Predict the 3D structure of the following.
Amino acid sequence: MEPLRVAVVGASGYTGAEFLRLARLHPALSLTRLCAESKAGLPLSEVLPPFHGIDLPPLVRFDAADVAAHADFAVLGLPHGAAQDATAELLAAGVRVVDMSADHRFSDPDEFARIYGPHRHPANLAETVYGLPELNRERLRTTRLAGCAGCYPTSVVLAVTPALEADLLATREVIADSKSGVSGAGRTPGAGTHFPETAEGLHAYKTFDHRHAPEISRALGGLKVRFTPHLVPMNRGILSTVYLRLRSGIDLATVRAAYERRYAHEPFVRVLPAAVHPDTRHVRGSNLCHLGLFVEDDLLCVQTVIDNLTKGAAGQALQCLNLMAGLPETTGLDHTALFP
Amino acid sequence: MEPLRVAVVGASGYTGAEFLRLARLHPALSLTRLCAESKAGLPLSEVLPPFHGIDLPPLVRFDAADVAAHADFAVLGLPHGAAQDATAELLAAGVRVVDMSADHRFSDPDEFARIYGPHRHPANLAETVYGLPELNRERLRTTRLAGCAGCYPTSVVLAVTPALEADLLATREVIADSKSGVSGAGRTPGAGTHFPETAEGLHAYKTFDHRHAPEISRALGGLKVRFTPHLVPMNRGILSTVYLRLRSGIDLATVRAAYERRYAHEPFVRVLPAAVHPDTRHVRGSNLCHLGLFVEDDLLCVQTVIDNLTKGAAGQALQCLNLMAGLPETTGLDHTALFP
Amino acid sequence: MEPLRVAVVGASGYTGAEFLRLARLHPALSLTRLCAESKAGLPLSEVLPPFHGIDLPPLVRFDAADVAAHADFAVLGLPHGAAQDATAELLAAGVRVVDMSADHRFSDPDEFARIYGPHRHPANLAETVYGLPELNRERLRTTRLAGCAGCYPTSVVLAVTPALEADLLATREVIADSKSGVSGAGRTPGAGTHFPETAEGLHAYKTFDHRHAPEISRALGGLKVRFTPHLVPMNRGILSTVYLRLRSGIDLATVRAAYERRYAHEPFVRVLPAAVHPDTRHVRGSNLCHLGLFVEDDLLCVQTVIDNLTKGAAGQALQCLNLMAGLPETTGLDHTALFP
Amino acid sequence: MEPLRVAVVGASGYTGAEFLRLARLHPALSLTRLCAESKAGLPLSEVLPPFHGIDLPPLVRFDAADVAAHADFAVLGLPHGAAQDATAELLAAGVRVVDMSADHRFSDPDEFARIYGPHRHPANLAETVYGLPELNRERLRTTRLAGCAGCYPTSVVLAVTPALEADLLATREVIADSKSGVSGAGRTPGAGTHFPETAEGLHAYKTFDHRHAPEISRALGGLKVRFTPHLVPMNRGILSTVYLRLRSGIDLATVRAAYERRYAHEPFVRVLPAAVHPDTRHVRGSNLCHLGLFVEDDLLCVQTVIDNLTKGAAGQALQCLNLMAGLPETTGLDHTALFP
């Protein structure tokens, strides 16, 4: 079989680098173009030292026509905002796009504009598919454009969906207390991610004011989302501790049954045994989501862990790409966690 | 003035060592006895290397009569359970006691027994004062026995009390999503605190099943407490993210006014400016509690940070001791955080 | 082609778990038996949570005959000392052995005894091959027994060998200042690896008194080894900073030429460009060794980084096993670092 | 007694903040002016959140006349280069200066220029005293200007001085393999101190090319210094592992005697018992230096640990200031480590 020809646009950031790590070991995929902006022309090993001496294409400036000549798919690791034009050019040139940025996670241009400002190519929003295979598997197979779910939203949406679909909830509200490692902030240094301002400390940020809240709400059919993200002194991993109010008479056994049924055939979501707590360290570097369930009276606490750069970004992108390309969904994603 | 003569019983653990750090710089306190169990007889600098070459009494076995001969007060850093007999012997010998363990945090023997099993000296519970000066300042001045508030309870009770006292709440329930550094687990090694099983990872534990939940509930007049503690890869610090339901019509300004009024004269509690998030790193090694307030619709999120070994244990013990001894409450507790 | 049937004996420790991670993605290898001691009978996912829901054999007690019936090779992740009997039984049963412990790193029983005490099967030492493919590639192809090089020794021996072979050195002495992550201490908790005694701190240990020093010396033809290991607050990685005295007239260019020549065809050793410093984070989870070279007057400083669990243990074991099995040496070892 | 009136110029960086932490608890010192550049005018608690609600002067722009009107001493926490003009203005206005930057660590303008470029006020170098009380106690008492020793130099000079003074060394060369926490890099964010590029990793930098090497050499009478600094994923602490060649016949007992004699009356330097390794965690937040000694044949390994921000900067500055002001040298410096 011809290998899938894939370009990575925005290869020098963390999500791009993570995609390279996964894609290199993918048996049916060939990385044909690596594009970067300010880092174009530099040796890849200077920008991404783990790839010293590894055979990969050089870092070049993005050119949609050039990408189209050499790739069937493009995976975008660009900053939010920068992916809009690139996507438009790539689609026009016949390249199917998997966007890891936030630029194509909403279908409604007005909704997008309220959160991120006006979209420069609103027509593309009409055809984007929200890139969370556990929700949109079938639509992803045929789309030209997937807007990968955000890292926090992936963890929260997977935590809530079974309860919502099984009609277990008494109120249409979720409290999501989420905790993330620092790589989620990206590769650009800043005061808030300076090592001495981050190590040996913990704080919340943007309480009730983070742009992932409306994304979660949209993916959950308009549920009210009370979202408090926290920054944890570790590189990778998200733990979302999610609180939901159960309808009268719903107990832990009923909840467990609903979650186990919903995820019985999902290749990357694992409902842990009763009383077992998920730990970010157990999924680090894998595309897995571990999920734990706890009930006290009418309060349900769901805990999910993912690697924010894998299932929360590059692994999810590869999962979407596999679907779009007609490959088995798990191809190249069978890694288990780097432990410890 | 005669210095206060103080013994530390259980000096070799983290809370004991933290008390030594603070007490050495206290201008009106003299450490006259340091007691340990298995470590008695060893050089202090072998057990607690930071004190190499520092002039302190040797580690001796606990003997209540000996302590009584040399100390007016004893501060107990013993494991839970082990403080019951020591306290009884010390009180009988005329020594006033500040207990940092969980052995004297309840007044009702039945309630204590339900959580920790039967108390060996239930009569002492009748006279213990819950050692949280922000709640019980006056009673602490005269008691013979203070049972210092736990680390998690301190952070949650300080977060909830003003809302409760000002009658801002619509429901008698609190969701407390708390995160602690690893020193809270004590100094005895175990699988769950082995460095490679803790660094670069995050998990909750004992969800809805932790013994601090009833302690918090008792201190908050019976409020239902939904408590999820998490272990964070850092040494010190607790951040409690607390969710409360506001009565209709209560907005952020009303909430802020109530909290600022309640804590206006508290020496160790700081209500941060609007939109500012507290960070454990900003109170590390200090006896301070920083507190932030956030509201979305009818949901109030209060965030508090403390150092679990200082305001959560040894600093609080010294604060209680100051009160019991008739000293200014802040004596020897004016440290600011070790930053960064 | 028939897959290689491989048993892992001692699967529940860190080196065993790391071997499982790598072996699962190896295209020509089938894990047929997983053996453990105290953990036998427990669900694998309880012992090694990253493998929850992953299809692997159950943890059973070690039985040499059973292993021989189902495996051609056994990889041993047992504690030092425990591998001697297991190896003897496996060899007798016709199973070829790759031992990750220290039990088969010396050929001379007397030398072994001086360091570790008497060997229970000294005859096996006569046929063991020191498992460092960069030194012993050809002998590994045919041996029944490989004693994988230790983690520190791997990093130091790779740093020194080219200088030694090219006769660049003025003295037969090496100062090796090595720094290791905490996973090198194994999975058994202890005071020295308790998180609060390890995080935010750094110290040397066993200065001039570590059992890896004679191993390094043996691998380097009797060079005097001055070895100071340090414990660094991170999970994985070894950085060895090695100081060597150059013969008169040898400059950096000559040194670089010798190292580049020596490692030109080594698949896992990379000599970095001039003035570039290797970083443990750039090889984490990979089987790579990055190497940097620095000269001041007659002093050569070589810096090597490896992942102590991969190139320092399980990756090296797989590399040895590939050679012993006649497979391409790099099969299943093409991972790049988990970054960041 | 009148309190010492002290200004801090450059109060918003880590060394300035650390000086504030210590000075607030100093019984004979009054902080009268806090100066900053870009942060002047901002609330102190916004710039340095640990000081929220703490009574301290506001952050104002530096004005030498204003400082002179309110302070007898100025402690400078400015970036390298920026302290030259400020010092000149302050001295001219009659204020005695303790400079924590590298601007006044050399007496010879030519030597300074070779390392840092031309000094703008070379005459001041003639009267500066190198701020390491263990070397220059008497001269510090009377100087108008102290140029505090750097963090790495403090750790290395304390490690070598006794051996040098006691004539124990066979060669005039020291190999100093030093390891530092990240706060040593200052508070300005950059790629090299971005959390995800620093945590879970270790590397050397500027091998044989760091500006502290000539400073160490100068303080050690011209000894050749082979200096390799490393960046360790922790906030505070320096461990220097120093290798020296002993003269024939010098054994560990002789070495220990020389070190113990040299430091017998030093208040902040502790020679640890035989075979005990110093640990940065045991001096964190204190002004102490712990020192360990190890010998193999003719090689001496000295290990020193300090807190880079305390004994390596602000604590040392306060120690110098105490001497210059005629106060007991240890005043306000009696802290023990924050442990754990």
Notes: Chain C touches chain A at residues 14, 17-18, 20-21, 24-25, 48-54, 183, 199-200, 235-236, 270, 272, 279, 282-286, 290, 334-340 (CB under 8 Å). The longest strand of chain C covers residues 173-180.
